[in-house]
Each structure stands twice: as structure tokens, then as C-alpha cells.
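R.M. (postdoc): so does anyone remember the format we settled on? I'll just put the C-alpha cells first.
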């Protein structure tokens, strides 16, 4: 956005309890660049929502953050990732006070809400945290969705009006994820894989990723196909997920050498795997965008995936899609991608064309256009229009006194709070 909207002024608003963003944006935060400013705000810590003893500090941090933003007098606040702060000191909110400016939130998905039995019911603490931020999300003036499906999901599940939703799509690092082979990648994993190719999956191992059905579909392939094209699962799986896969492999009487759990690999190795795979498979039941499919296509790979949620928007070829709930459907499309030369050629030719439709520049332009189109008069606020310095000073003093009263009230509600607080 900084590159695509040079006519705008930007404030990088950073939580001092987290890492220093100046190192990330050093190229923009020079003394000579007067359109990009760095603003750091300070709050009591720790404030992670996981621990109940932090809740008062967290509420105070929210009050300080909202006050500090109002002092910056922005036209828009853009929150790039709202559902943060359960395990760290990140704090977010949508300010509803008089004088607050409109807030836009980048919207990724509502997977925990839609699959609450899996993601929220087993974790009451996280569920409470998630639902509280869901209420914040509903208060946002604008949601910038990463896919058409994510926008539709927000409209249907949250009852948000269409004018509050804009689709900005998403992208990947095309410098790293490209068809050009890198000589810098010397991972031992690459030396162990067969030259005849392999079936690749990249991602997590939670239930919506649908790995069990993928393994079951792989088991339906012939022994020779399994030998020539073993299934490589790449990603950070927890111990329980790894054990589940091993038990499934044993129950299906698969050769354990043909189902490889590689664990986490860095992006350089991952890009090489995308290029060398016989086929990449994304069998997810639910995705907000489906980034691994785009990464694989950007590397020129043959890509197949589920026919549901956002994945068809990325892959863009109906014949490359399967029913993720039907093991036979997965196996059928997988086998075709491994054996049908015409189908392979079409998917390889399709990959760069589809990948070219997604770029960070395009996403940034769409986000900027959405903010520009939604003028302040679309979201009436009480932002000060005072031009007299004495009046401005008086209004700021009133706002500061209101903050002090709010903090004092919060601190009095739990007298043990200050004994545990660490003020920066």
C-alpha cells in the first residue's frame, strides 16, 4: 500500500510490547520520507488474553490504544489481523467513542465460528476471546475480504450489509515462489525423494485440512503408483496429529516409506518441493483463500484441490477439483493428474495464467480504492474540526482526562491489579 498509494500519508502505529516495526519498514521511515510516520504506543504488560490475571491490564491497554489513535487524527484505521492477542501482548479494538475515526479490518475467514465444535467448544478461554473480537469485527466500518467466499461468509454468518464488504483478494511472494529453480536449496529432504516425483501437501494438520481422507485416497492408488509417487506431507503437525497419520497408514496397510511426514520446512525448500512435485493437492474442507495452491501454481506446478469454499477461486479449473468429503472423488482426480498427459499439460499451462491474476500490488490497490471510495461522510464521526489552537488544546485535555478516569475506574475494580502490572 505504501508503494501503490504514494499520494496518501501513512502512520505505522506500533505496540511497544511487540517487536520494533521500524526494522521492517526502514526503507520507508527515513527522515526524508514525510508521508510515512512511525508511532509507538505504550501499555501495561503482560496483556495476553489467555491468562485471567491479565484482563484488567488488557482493558487498560485497549483504552490507551484508542486514545493514542485519536490523538493521531487519522482518516482511517486499518487493522491487518484482528484476532490476535490470545497468546501474546497484541491488543486490538474498534473504537466506538465520539471522535473515533472509521476502522477497516482485513477479513480472512470465520472458520472457528462456523466449526465451533472443533475450534471453540474444547477451549472455553479461547472461545470467550474469539467471540469478544467477533463483536469488534461487527463494529468495523469496512471489511476487506481476501476472497469472494470470505466476503459471502461474513455476509451470511454475521449479517453484514454488502456495502460494508470489499474483496481485495490475496497473493504470495512471486520472487520466492516462481518456476525458476534455486541453486541455494540443498536440503537433505530433496536428496531422499524419488526422481520420479511425489504427491505433495503443504499445511497444518487440524481436522479441516482433511489429511485423513487424502491418505485414504492415496491408499486407493496402485502399489506401483504409490512407489513412484509417494505422498509427502509438509507442515508443522502436533504429536497427536502425527500419531493419527501413522495409525491410519498402518490400518490401511500402506508402506510407511510411501507416506512421508517431513514436518516444517522453510520457504526456500517449500518452493523447490512445489517445483519438483508430480502434483500438489489441497484437500481442505474450509479455506479463507487457499494460499498453498497459489504458491504451487506460482512455481508452475500441477495443482488439484477441493471444490468448496474459496479454493475454486484460486485454482480456476473445474476438472481439477474434487469433492473433499468423497475419498473416491479425491483418488480419481489425483490418479488423472498423475497419468493423463493431456490433463497434466493443461494444468501446467493453467498454473502461470492463474497465478498472474493474484499479486500484492493488485491487492494493495483494491484496499486503497475501497478506503478512498468510502469517504468519511459515509461513516459520520465527531472528529474535531476545530481550527483555534485553544479549542484544540481544550478538547485534547478533555479526552486525556476521560482516559485517566477510565483507567482509574478499571484499576479500582481489582485492587490487586497494580501489584502484578509492569509499566513500560
Amino acid at each position: 500500500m505504501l508503494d501503490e498509494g504514494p499520494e496518501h500519508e501513512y502512520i505505522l502505529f506500533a505496540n511497544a510490547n511487540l517487536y520494533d516495526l521500524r526494522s521492517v519498514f526502514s526503507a520507508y521511515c527515513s527522515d526524508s520520507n514525510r508521508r510515512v510516520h512511525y508511532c509507538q504506543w505504550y501499555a501495561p504488560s503482560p496483556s495476553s488474553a489467555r491468562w485471567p490475571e491479565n484482563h484488567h491490564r488488557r482493558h487498560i491497554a485497549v483504552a490507551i490504544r484508542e486514545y493514542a489513535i485519536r490523538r493521531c487524527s487519522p482518516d482511517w484505521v486499518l487493522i491487518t489481523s484482528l484476532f490476535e492477542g490470545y497468546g501474546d501482548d497484541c491488543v486490538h479494538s474498534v473504537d466506538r467513542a465520539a471522535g473515533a475515526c472509521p476502522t477497516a479490518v482485513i477479513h480472512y475467514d470465520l472458520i472457528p465460528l462456523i466449526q465451533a465444535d472443533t475450534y471453540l467448544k474444547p477451549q472455553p478461554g479461547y472461545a470467550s476471546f474469539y467471540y469478544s473480537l467477533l463483536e469488534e469485527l461487527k463494529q468495523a466500518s469496512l471489511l476487506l475480504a481476501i476472497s469472494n467466499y470470505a466476503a459471502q461468509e461474513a455476509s451470511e454468518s454475521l449479517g453484514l450489509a454488502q456495502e460494508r464488504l470489499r474483496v481485495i483478494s490475496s497473493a504470495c511472494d512471486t520472487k520466492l515462489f516462481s518456476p525458476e529453480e534455486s541453486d541455494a536449496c540443498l536440503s537433505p529432504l530433496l536428496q531422499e525423494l524419488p526422481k520420479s516425483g511425489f504427491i505433495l501437501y503443504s499445511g497444518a494438520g487440524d481436522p479441516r485440512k482433511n489429511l485423513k481422507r487424502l491418505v485414504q485416497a492415496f491408499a486407493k492408488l496402485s502399489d506401483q503408483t504409490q512407489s513412484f509417487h509417494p505422498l509427502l506431507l509438509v507442515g508443522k503437525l502436533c504429536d497427536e496429529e502425527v500419531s493419527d497419520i501413522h495409525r491410519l497408514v498402518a490400518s490401511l496397510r500402506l508402506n510407511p516409506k510411501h507416506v512421508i511426514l517431513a514436518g516444517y520446512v522453510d520457504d526456500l525448500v517449500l518452493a523447490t518441493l512445489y517445483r519438483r512435485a508430480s502434483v500438489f493437492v489441497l484437500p481442505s474442507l474450509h479455506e479463507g483463500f487457499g494460499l498453498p495452491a497459489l504458491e504451487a501454481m506460482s512455481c508452475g506446478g500441477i495443482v488439484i484441490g477441493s471444490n468448496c469454499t474459496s479454493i475454486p477461486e484460486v485454482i480456476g479449473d473445474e476438472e481439477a477439483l474434487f469433492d473433499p468429503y468423497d475419498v473416491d472423488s479425491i483418488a480419481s482426480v489425483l490418479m488423472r493428474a498423475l497419468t493423463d498427459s493431456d490433463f497434466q499439460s493443461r494444468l501446467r499451462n493453467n498454473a502461470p495464467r492463474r497465478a498472474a491474476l493474484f499479486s500484492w500490488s493488485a491487492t494493495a490497490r483494491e484496499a486503497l480504492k475501497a478506503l478512498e471510495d468510502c469517504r468519511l461522510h459515509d461513516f459520520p464521526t465527531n472528529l474535531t474540526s476545530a481550527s483555534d489552537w485553544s479549542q484544540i488544546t481544550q478538547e485534547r485535555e478533555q479526552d486525556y482526562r476521560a482516559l485517566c478516569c477510565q483507567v482509574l475506574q478499571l484499576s479500582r475494580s481489582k485492587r490487586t491489579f497494580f501489584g502484578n502490572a509492569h509499566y513500560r
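R.M.: ...and that's the designed sequence above, right after the C-alpha cells. Also worth knowing: Residues 380-384, 416-424 have pLDDT under 50 and may be disordered. The two ends are 31 Å apart (CA to CA).
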